[in-house]
Amino acid sequence: MPPDESFGTSGGGTAHTDAASHQADPLRRARLRWRARRGLLENDLIFERFFSRYEESLSDADVGALTRLFELSDNDLMDLLLARKEPEGELSDPDIVRVLGLLRAV
Known about the structure:
Number of helices: 6
Helix content: 55-70%
């Protein structure tokens, strides 16, 4: 199964039925896109392609993983996105690893 067909199905979230979920709230979606804006153009381009392809299927677990990635510095994030580094410690969470794989593929 291609990654975009299974995306958002893990993590046990109820993104498409929970009224408080990311998908149910346009303001939350806009905030997530705003948080994705980075100081490095390369990161911005990756996130723009990612949202164009996956935004409609993001689960709450996916949003949580992205939020944790957004807390990184631009250079650390770029190293992960370009596979110069692999996620370690708290970032080796399965949700982060899955989302990072999709980010790397866009």
